[in-house]
Design brief:
The protein has 1335 residues and is mainly beta. The protein contains 14 helices and 89 strands.
Length: 1335
C-alpha cells in the first residue's frame, strides 16, 4: 500500500505521521484490524534549571544617584540586569547591588533628574574647611532630602515602564525600590525603540519602531522624594499622550531650550517614510497640556539624501543647537524653531582604524557622553566626548554662536565601543567608562593636558560560541606516548573527591578583543599590591606602627624558614622598605611562631625569644630561661600559641614532646602547667571553650591524628590536671579502603575556634573537620562535618565577620576558600556555604589565581576594614580587597583574534583553538594554567635517518584568508592496538570545496628535560579536498569520522592511508550537532529534532547505510544536544537526551529499551528559558568539598556524579539537574507557592497560563516538570517561605512532601509548636543543596 510521511499539527506541535493514499484522498475501504502497540510509558523525571553566571551584557553606562547625592554611583544596565557600582576614591568600581528579576528584556533606559555629586562634594569640602577653622564654622548644609535618591532610573520593558531607586535597609544594605507603569496598548510595535528625557527631567518620550511615539509628563524628583518619605509608592507619571506619525521614527531627542526659554520644551523627531527623511520639531510651554501640544502632526523639513542616514543626534546646551552625525557627515544644526534648519559642516580629522575595529567598513561614530560640570558651566560652553567604534574618542568643546572651538582626539581606549559610554567625575580627574559588543570594555582616567591612563577592564558582553571542560592539567601525565597506555588512569584509582574539579573554558569575543575565558564562580579578591620578597615566606602578620611620626604606615612581620623579617609599608602602599635587626626591637634572627596583635600591644614568639612591644615600652625574654628546666639548653621549640593572657609552647627534648603553659601579666611570663605528650605535637591553639580556657593540640599518636583538649582553668588544682580532667580526644583516620602507600600520614595542621562550642581543624590530607559538643551541655566533642578541599595540607584561620557569624578561611593547594555559616540552621556550627576565593590582578587579567599558603588580617591597622587582607603566595605578599558576595569571576586569556572553537587534550594538558587574525585562520595550543601560547607550527621534512621539522607560520591547510573553518574535532583513533590522538579541522575553501586536515601534536622533549618553557610541536598529518562540498559539522569514533554535507551524512574510515566512505544516511534536514553514544550516532537536525542511528550492526555494515533506531515524531528546531542517561542511573538500553533550540527551549527526550520495539523518542519534560542554549557539557565541575557528602533520602551523592552545564550565546551559564519525582514535587510546590504570591521580585515574569496558579503537584504536563531554580534561589535568599505559605493546608502539604526525604527524623507532619519554622529550615536546607552552583 502506498504511503508517505506528512506533518500533522497535534497538541500545539507538528508531528510526523505516516499517511496512506486513501487517507490522503479521503477515501477508505475495509481492511483487517491490526494490533497497535502503544509506546511504553516513560519514567517521570523533572528538570531544575538555575543560572550560575548571569550574562555580562552591558548596554548602557549611566552616572546616576539612586541612593543620595553623597555617592558617586554608576549604573551598568544589561539586557536583563541592573548593576549599581560606586566609584571609590581609588578610582575603582565597587559593586553595591544588582537586580536581575525583570519580566522581559530591557529595551532602553535613561536617568531622570540631575546628578548632584559635584555639588555634594563641594559642600563636603566646605564643611571640612569650616570644621578645621578656628573661627565659628559656617553652615553649608545640603538641600533637604539629601539622604534620599537624587535621580530615578527608568527602564523600558516589553509591556511596562519600571522606575528604580534605592533605599537603605535596617541592616545597612541597599535594596532596589521599584514602581511599575504599564504600556497599555498591546498593538505597539517595539515601544522604547527610541527613548529620551527632557533636560529638566519633566518629560519622557518613547518611540515605537513604526508610526507612533508617546510622551509622558513626569513628576519632579522633589515630589517623588516626598511620596517616598511619606511611605507611599512613587507615582512618576502625571499624564501621557501618544502621537501617530507617517513613517518610522528614526531619531527622537529633546533639545535644550536655551537660557532665555527655560520653561520651553523642544522635541526633535526624524522620521523615515518611502526613502525620505524628515526632521520635525514639537515645542510647547511647560504649562501647556500634552493633548494640545501633540494634537497635530508636524510635517517638518526634508533632509538632504546626500547627508546620509543620521547615526547620532547630540543636543547641545547652547542656543538650542544639536550635532547631527551620519556615516559621512558631521554638522551643527541651529535655528530649528525659526524655519528650515541650518547645517554648519564640521570637519573632524580622520584617523586610521585601530586593532579594535571589526569589519571592512570605515569605523563609525557610535555614541557620546557629556562630562559633569559645576553650576552654570554648560550654559555658555558645552563639552562632548564623541566615541568611535574602534576606540578613538574626540573631545569637542562648543561655545555660544562660535561653534566648535576645540576638537581633540584621545585614546584609543583599547576596546570596541558601542552604546556603553559614560563620563564620571572624581577628585583625580574624569573617568571614561567604555564598552562594546566584541569583548571586555575599559575604564580610563583623563587628566587635563595628559594622556588617558588605563585603570582596568570592564566586564562586558562578547559572543560565546563554544565551551569545553578540562581536567586539572597537574593531575595528568605529560608524557607523549602515541601508544595507548595500559596503566590505569588517575580517575580510576583515586576517590571522586580527590580529583580536582574540571574547569570550564569558552570561546569569547571577536577581532582583537577575542579571548578564551575561564568561567569561574566564587568570591573575588582584588590584588592592590604585589610585593616580591627574596625568600619563601611561611606566614605573615600585620602590625600597627607605634612610632609617633607624620607618615601613616604599618609593619608586616614575616616568618621565614630560618629567620624573620620586618617590612615597613606606607598606608597608601606607595613606599615599602625592609628593617634590619639594629633598627627594630623585634627578634628577626629566629623564625616567628606566633604573634598576638592589638591596638596597644604586640607579642612576638620566636624559637628563641618572647618580645612584648607597646607604645611606651618593650620587653624581651629568652625562651630557654622561661622553660627553667635542667634540660632547657637541649630543648627545641616546635610551635607556639599566644593570647593576651596565655602562652602555650610545644617543646621537644630527649625524644619527648611537652606542652608548657605560661600566663602573662603584661610584662613577664609565668610557667603555669606542663603536659607530657605521648606522640608528636603537630599544632597548638589557645581558646576558651565551655570548660574554660583550654590548650588545643594536634597530636600524632601511633600514626593516628588526635585532637587533645587541655583545660587550664587556674581555679583547678594543678595535681588534678590529668586525673580528674583528662583531655578530650578525637581519633581520626583517613585512608580506609585505599592504598596506604599512596597516602601521606595524616595529622592536624591548624586549629580554630568560633565561640566556646565550635572547633575547626585543618588536616594534612586536605580535610577540614567541623567539631562540636556531643551533647548541648556536655564537654565531649565529636566531628559534625568533614569537607575535603585538596590533596595538600589545609590551614584554617579566622575570616570576615558576616551577619550570621564569623567565617573561616581555608588555604591549601586548591586555593583559598571561605566557609560561611548560613542563618537559621538546625545544626549550628556546621558551615554550609563554602565559596572559592579567586585572586585577580587588574593589570594581568589572564593570570591564574595563585596558591596561597597563609593569610593575615589588617583589621587592627587604622583605615583598613574587614575586607582588606594580606595573603602569602610563596615569595609574594599580596594585599587584596576581599568581596563579600560570591559571583562570576571570569579569567580572560587573550588570543588577539576571533576564536572559532575549543578543545582540550588530556595528553598534552593544553587547550586547542582556531583563531582568525585579520581574516587568516591558525591553530593554537594554550596552557590552561598560565595562559601561555605553546604553539610551534611545523612541517615535517623527509630525512633518511630521522624525522626533521621545519618551523612555519601556518600548518598546511591553514594560513589562507580564503579558508573558512567550520569545525574543530578531537579524534582518538585506534589502529592495531595503538591509540593516536589527532585534531581534525573541517573548513571551506574559496572554490566552495570542503577541506579536511588531520593534525598531530606532541610536546617537545627538550622542554621536558631542560626545564625551559614547554612548547607543543604540531603539523598536518594529512589533508584532503572534499569535492562533495564543505562539511557543516562532524564527530568521530575510535575508527572513523562522521561528516555532514547538507542533508547527507557520511562515515569515513582510513584504509591504506586513504579515506574511504564506509556508509551514508540521508537526513530530513541538515545536522546541527553530532554525538557518538554507546555505538549509536545521535544526530540533532535543524528542523526535525533528534535522530538516533545505528552504524555498527550487521545490517548497517552489509548495506553500507546507517539504520534509524529512534526518531522524534515532533518537529523541533535543534541547536545542540547531550546524552545524560549514561550517568543518570537509567538502564543502559535507555537514554535521556537534553536538546535545545533557538526558541529558548530545552527538551528532555527519552528513548525506551530496544525490547519495547518502540521507535519514537518521548518528551518527558520541557523547560522554557530566558535565553537559548548554544552548547551543553557535562562533567565533574563542583569543588571538592561538595562531593561525597550525605544527601537527602534517595538522592545521596555518588563520586561519579556529573554536572550538566549549558552555555548561551549571551555568555550566561546555566546548570541543569535531573530530578527524581519526589524531589520534583517538593521543589515544584515551592515554585507554585511563589507564583501564587504574585511577588514581583520572586516571580517577575508573571504566569503563562492560569494552570500555573493551581497547587497541583500531581500534574505531569511537560512544562510543569520544569522547576525554575532562579525563582527558588530568590526564595532562598529572602527566606520567602514565611511569606508565601499562607494557609495551614499549604504547610501540611509541604510537611508531607518532606516525608520522602531521609532527614533523620520523623517529625515532618507532626511537629511541635515551632513546626512551621522547623519545616521551613528543612526546606531551606534542601533548596540550598539543589541550588548550590555547579562550578
Amino acid at each position: 500500500m502506498a504511503s508517505l510521511q506528512a506533518q500533522v499539527f497535534v497538541n500545539d506541535e507538528w508531528v510526523t505521521q505516516t499517511v496512506t493514499a486513501e487517507e490522503l484522498l479521503g477515501t477508505s475501504r475495509p481492511h483487517p484490524k491490526s494490533v497497535v502497540l502503544n509506546d511504553p510509558a516513560p519514567p517521570k523525571y523533572g528538570v531544575l534549571t538555575r543560572t550560575i553566571i548571569e550574562s555580562p551584557i552591558i548596554r548602557w553606562v549611566l552616572p546616576i544617584q539612586l541612593r543620595s547625592p553623597l555617592f558617586n554611583d554608576v549604573a551598568l544596565v544589561g539586557d536583563q540586569s541592573v548593576q549599581i557600582c560606586e566609584l571609590g576614591t581609588d578610582t575603582q568600581l565597587q559593586p553595591i547591588a544588582r537586580k536581575v528579576s525583570f519580566s522581559s528584556k530591557i529595551r532602553n533606559c535613561r536617568a531622570i533628574g540631575t546628578n548632584g555629586y559635584l555639588t555634594a562634594r563641594k559642600h563636603s569640602i566646605l564643611r571640612d574647611i569650616s570644621s578645621n577653622s578656628s573661627s565659628s564654622p559656617t553652615s553649608t548644609p545640603l538641600a533637604d532630602g539629601a539622604e534620599l535618591f537624587q535621580q530615578v532610573l527608568v527602564l523600558v520593558l516589553a509591556e511596562e515602564l519600571v522606575f528604580l531607586f534605592m533605599n537603605r535597609t535596617a541592616t545597612g544594605d541597599w535594596k532596589f525600590v521599584s514602581s511599575h507603569y504599564p504600556i497599555t496598548s498591546g498593538t505597539l510595535a517595539y515601544p522604547g525603540f527610541q527613548m529620551t528625557i527632557s533636560p529638566d527631567g519633566g518629560y519622557l518620550a518613547l518611540a515605537c519602531s513604526e508610526d507612533l511615539f508617546i510622551v509622558y509628563q513626569l513628576e519632579s524628583i522633589q515630589e517623588l522624594r516626598r511620596q517616598h518619605s511619606n511611605g507611599l509608592s512613587i507615582k512618576p507619571i502625571k499624564s501621557v499622550q501618544a502621537r501617530a506619525v507617517r513613517g518610522v521614527v528614526h531619531k527622537l531627542e529633546f533639545l535644550y531650550p536655551g537660557f532665555e526659554k527655560q520653561s520651553y520644551v523642544i522635541l526633535l523627531i526624524i522620521t523615515a517614510h518611502e526613502g525620505v527623511l524628515r526632521l520635525a520639531v514639537y515645542d510647547w510651554e511647560n504649562s501647556e497640556r500634552l493633548q494640545d501640544a501633540l494634537a497635530v502632526e508636524k510635517s517638518g523639513h526634508r533632509l538632504d539624501v546626500a547627508f546620509g542616514v543620521p547615526l547620532l543626534i547630540i543636543p547641545l546646551t547652547v542656543c538650542s543647537q544639536f550635532l547631527i552625525i551620519t556615516d559621512r557627515y558631521v554638522a551643527i544644526c541651529s535655528d530649528v524653531l525659526g524655519g528650515p534648519p541650518e547645517f554648519i559642516p564640521l570637519e573632524l580629522t580622520r584617523l586610521d582604524k585601530t586593532d579594535w575595529h571589526y569589519g571592512t567598513h570605515t569605523p563609525m561614530w557610535t555614541t557620546w557622553t557629556r562630562p559633569m560640570r559645576e553650576g552654570n558651566y554648560h550654559t555658555n560652553t558645552d563639552v562632548i566626548y564623541l566615541a568611535r567604534e574602534d576606540g578613538w574618542v574626540n573631545r569637542l568643546e562648543v561655545k555660544g554662536d562660535s561653534g566648535v572651538e576645540t576638537s581633540l582626539y584621545m585614546g584609543p581606549l583599547e576596546c570596541n565601543i558601542d552604546s556603553e559610554f559614560a563620563s564620571l567625575s572624581t577628585s583625580h580627574g574624569e573617568i571614561l567608562v567604555a564598552g562594546g559588543n566584541y569583548g571586555p570594555g575599559a575604564i580610563w582616567l583623563v587628566k587635563p593636558r595628559k594622556n588617558p591612563k588605563h585603570l582596568g577592564p570592564l566586564l562586558n558582553w562578547s559572543p560565546t560560541i563554544d565551551l569545553v571542560l578540562t581536567k586539572d592539567a597537574n593531575t595528568y601525565s605529560k608524557s607523549d606516548n602515541r601508544k595507548s597506555s595500559k596503566r590505569p588512569v588517575l580517575a580510576e584509582k583515586a576517590r571522586g573527591h580527590m580529583l580536582a574539579p574540571e574547569r570550564a573554558f569558552a570561546c569569547s569575543g571577536r577581532g582583537f578583543s577575542g579571548a578564551i575565558v575561564e568561567l569561574r564562580y566564587g568570591i573575588q579578591a582584588k590584588i592592590g599590591l604585589d610585593l616580591l620578597y627574596s625568600s619563601p615566606i611561611k606566614k605573615c602578620w600585620a602590625i600597627p606602627s607605634f612610632d609617633d611620626t607624620s607618615v601613616a604606615a604599618f609593619f608586616m612581620l614575616l616568618s621565614l624558614p630560618e629567620t624573620s623579617a620586618l617590612l615597613h609599608i606606607s598606608h597608601d602602599f606607595s613606599e615599602v622598605s625592609e628593617k634590619s635587626q639594629n633598627e627594630v626591637k623585634f627578634d628577626l634572627l629566629s623564625p616567628t611562631l606566633a604573634v598576638y596583635v592589638s591596638k596597644d600591644i604586640v607579642i612576638q614568639i620566636t624559637t628563641t625569644h618572647a618580645t612584648i612591644l607597646s607604645p611606651t615600652s618593650c620587653y624581651q625574654h629568652s625562651i630557654s630561661d622561661m622553660i627553667e628546666g635542667p634540660e632547657n639548653h637541649l630543648t627545641t621549640v616546635t610551635d607556639a600559641a599566644i593570647t593576651r593572657e596565655i602562652l602555650a609552647l610545644s617543646v621537644y627534648s630527649q625524644s619527648i614532646f611537652k606542652i608548657i603553659v605560661f600566663d602573662f601579666n603584661g610584662t613577664t611570663f609565668r610557667r603555669q602547667r606542663v603536659f607530657t605528650i605521648e606522640g608528636e605535637v603537630t599544632t597548638l591553639s589557645v581558646n576558651t571553650l565551655s570548660a574554660g580556657v583550654c590548650v588545643l593540640a594536634g597530636l600524632s599518636q601511633k600514626d593516628l591524628p588526635t585532637l587533645a583538649i587541655f583545660p587550664i582553668d587556674p581555679s583547678r588544682p594543678e595535681e588534678q590536671e590529668l586525673v580528674d580532667i583528662p583531655p578530650a580526644s578525637i581519633n581520626l583516620y583517613l585512608g580506609e579502603g585505599e592504598d596506604d602507600d599512596s597516602l601521606a600520614i595524616n595529622a592536624v595542621t591548624s586549629i580554630l575556634c568560633h565561640g566556646n562550642k565550635k572547633i575547626l581543624i585543618g588536616m594534612r590530607n586536605g580535610d577540614v573537620l567541623t567539631i562540636g559538643p556531643t551533647h548541648p551541655l556536655g564537654e565531649d566533642f565529636t566531628v559534625t562535618r568533614t569537607n575535603h578541599f585538596g590533596v595538600s595540607p589545609s590551614h584554617v584561620s579566622t575570616g570576615m565577620v558576616f551577619s550570621t557569624g564569623p567565617s573561616t578561611l581555608v588555604c591549601n593547594d586548591a586555593g583559598v576558600a571561605i566557609m560561611k555559616e548560613l542563618d537559621g540552621k538546625r545544626q549550628p556550627g556546621c558551615f554550609e556555604e563554602i565559596s572559592r576565593v579567586w585572586l585577580t590582578d587588574v593589570n594581568e587579567p589572564h593570570s591564574p589565581s595563585p596558591t596561597i599558603n597563609s593569610v593575615a588580617k589588617l583589621h587592627e591597622i587604622p583605615d583598613y576594614g574587614d575586607s582588606t587582607w594580606a595573603m602569602v603566595a610563596g615569595t609574594h605578599i599580596l594585599i587584596v580587597e576581599l568581596q563579600t558576595d560570591p559571583g562570576p569571576v571570569p579569567r580572560h586569556i587573550p588570543t588577539k583574534g576571533t576564536p572559532l572553537g575549543i578543545l582540550y587534550s588530556e595528553r598534552l594538558g593544553a587547550l586547542i583553538t582556531v583563531v582568525v587574525k585579520k581574516g587568516v585562520p591558525s591553530l593554537h595550543f594554550l596552557d590552561p594554567i598560565t595562559g601561555a601560547d605553546l604553539s610551534r607550527p611545523t612541517r615535517r621534512v623527509s630525512d633518511q635517518d630521522d624525522e626533521q621539522y621545519a618551523d612555519v607560520d601556518y600548518i598546511t591547510c591553514l594560513g589562507n584568508p580564503e579558508i573558512k573553518v567550520a569545525s574543530l574535532l578531537n579524534w582518538r583513533y585506534k589502529n592495531k592496538g595503538n591509540l593516536y590522538e589527532w585534531f581534525v579541522v573541517l573548513a571551506k575553501s574559496g572554490d566552495d570545496q570542503g577541506r579536511l586536515a588531520v593534525v598531530f601534536a606532541e610536546q617537545e622533549t627538550a622542554a621536558t628535560h631542560t626545564g625551559s618553557p614547554r612548547r607543543i610541536r604540531f603539523w598536518t598529518q594529512f589533508s584532503r579536498k572534499i569535492k562533495d562540498g564543505s562539511p557543516r559539522s562532524g564527530t568521530t569514533d575510535d575508527y572513523g569520522l562522521f561528516l555532514n554535507f547538507g542533508t547527507t551524512l557520511e562515515y569515513h574510515v582510513i584504509e591504506d592511508k586513504k579515506f574511504r566512505t564506509a556508509m551514508k544516511y540521508d537526513l530530513p534536514s541538515p545536522a546541527t550537532s553530532l554525538e557518538v553514544v554507546d555505538g549509536h550516532l545521535h544526530v540533532l537536525t535543524a528542523h526535525h529534532s533528534l535522530v538516533i542511528l545505528d552504524y555498527k550492526s550487521d545490517v548497517a555494515v552489509r548495506s553500507q547505510r546507517m539504520v534509524q533506531v529512534y526518531t522524534d515524531q515532533f518537529c523541533r528546531n535543534g541547536t545542540h544536544s547531550v546524552d545524560v542517561g549514561s550517568f543518570m542511573g537509567i538502564g543502559e538500553p535507555q537514554r535521556l537526551v537534553l536538546m535545545s533550540n533557538l526558541m529558548c527551549t530545552v527538551y528532555g527526550l527519552w528513548s525506551p529499551s530496544p525490547s519495547s520495539n518502540a521507535a519514537n523518542l518521548q518528551s518527558i519534560f520541557r523547560a522554557d528559558l530566558m535565553r537559548s542554549i548554544k552548547k551543553f557539557v557535562h562533567g565533574h565541575t563542583r569543588p571538592r568539598w561538595t562531593r561525597d557528602q550525605p544527601r537527602y533520602g534517595n538522592i545521596r551523592s555518588r563520586p561519579d556524579r556529573h554536572d550538566i552545564l549549558g552555555l548561551a550565546v549571551d555568555g550566561s551559564l546555566s546548570q541543569f539537574s535531573i530530578l527524581p519525582e519526589d524531589v520534583w514535587r517538593l521543589l515544584r510546590y515551592v515554585q507554585i507557592l511563589a507564583m501564587r504570591s504574585k511577588d514581583n521580585y520572586l516571580v517577575p515574569c508573571g504566569h503563562s497560563s492560569p494552570r500555573d496558579l493551581q497547587l497541583d503537584i500531581n500534574s505531569n504536563t511537560k512544562t510543569e516538570m520544569h522547576v525554575n531554580g532562579d525563582i527558588l534561589q530568590r526564595c532562598l535568599e529572602t527566606k520567602a517561605l514565611e511569606r508565601i505559605v499562607l494557609t495551614r493546608g499549604q504547610l501540611n502539604t509541604l510537611q508531607n512532601l518532606l516525608k520522602a526525604f531521609d532527614l533523620g527524623t520523623d517529625e515532618a507532619g507532626s511537629l511541635m509548636p515551632d513546626e512551621a519554622l522547623t519545616t521551613y529550615e528543612y526546606t531551606y536546607s534542601i533548596l540550598d543543596h539543589y541550588l548550590a552552583p555547579a562550578l
